[in-house]
């Protein structure tokens, strides 16, 4: 337990008055009943009733750490984002790792993607990269996200996880195949949070001072090396120590064994997006590193544990919409939906003034015309002008932060991505695996699909595996006791 940080060691009420007795409530006579005038007791019980905020609707279970990012390769040629300028420059950051589907108290060592959310406290405001430990995702249009997550969470009737729903949705959404192969493979259960890569996953736009733009993807490569957990050990740990990953991270940092990641970007010239062999904004695909090699940007080091879990980790609010000049969204249809979803979740989960909390507050002054709202803990603009435009020298726009104009074309409509090849990259991933990895992948998929009741779902999913690679489909089918005909 760390030391008390208040100036005095005197116990007070939340309004700062000293507490005379924190062991015995005020009663009428020796036996009671208890008197309503015991406002310390009333406040204590009432505040306790309100200790929980809603958990995150996804990524509820997580671990956080503070650290810094250091530039090793100046990127000013490509982006005006100052955190990527000047070799040797450091920017403070906070990271939160998470599992996706489980609740706040669920086990760490389950098969699930891991969230990898980084908040950089830059000199031009906060920049968040809210990614995962996988470079791809299950779906590629935000409109499918609530349905997808319903299948990952509990069945509303039984309150149990439902493999029928999981495989029904995946088999009817073949764009998920690449990520399903990734998740069911060895990397589906990382050994620790320190032994996995992180990815921005989406394509973003970088813009330099001259207004020239490129498309980029972020890769955080773990300097600890990738290590995964054997599924049987993972299951044992889930029972014995459900907080295994949180504990490992805390203990490593406490011992001064600071984990680090090297940040790379892939850079694609703007015009290549029109001719690349698939849609580079489709988040179910990776860009070939032969076409767009990794370019080093800097190093991320985690060197400080949170002092208080709720204040820092639970109340942290990350959003892909927290961008700084020099980084802009791409037209990725998942990313576009996320630009809305996160800040909306934060207003609901933490409150409209969530950005005033110390963990979320930028380390630069915030000057705007927003006022009031629940839990407004700043100066609320003091006596300054509260509308814009004004004649009173209030804060003004900065043309440097305007977005770069971009071309749009065609008709508005509800159109799918042009490229429908869900199989090549999933098959490539399968073919890249050693024979032992393939055998583990097949075993995991077969075990996961066994409880599916409808044969139609199994056959539909097997046909996707088969299209990715006949060997892949045939082996899953055999494992499930089914036969396939080419
Ligand atoms: C958390 C929505 C896709 C990574 C969340 C939260 C919401 C959400 C509402 C909870 C936020 C909070 O309460 O603070 C969505 C929607 C998506 C989507 C609507 C698709 C349209 C993705 C993708 C990734 C991702 C593709 C990774 C590439 C994360 C992470 C967190 C998170 C890391 C946890 C952030 C934290 O640690 O606080 N998402 N998500 N999400 N999401 Fe997504």
UniProtKB/TrEMBL annotation:
Belongs to the catalase family. Heme binds at residue 342. Its EC number is 1.11.1.6. Keywords: Heme, Hydrogen peroxide, Iron, Metal-binding, Oxidoreductase, Peroxidase. GO terms for biological process: hydrogen peroxide catabolic process; response to hydrogen peroxide. GO terms for cellular component: cytoplasm. Pfam families: Catalase, Catalase-rel. Signal peptide: none annotated. This is Catalase. It comes from the Bacteria. InterPro entries: Catalase, Catalase_3, Catalase_AS, Catalase_clade1/3, Catalase_core, Catalase_haem_BS, Catalase_immune_responsive, Catalase_sf. Residues 1-30 are annotated as: Disordered. The active site is at 59, 132. Residues 12-396 form the Catalase core domain. SMART domains: Catalase. GO terms for molecular function: catalase activity; heme binding; metal ion binding. Its cofactor is heme. It comes from Paenibacillus rhizosphaerae. The keyword Transmembrane does not apply.
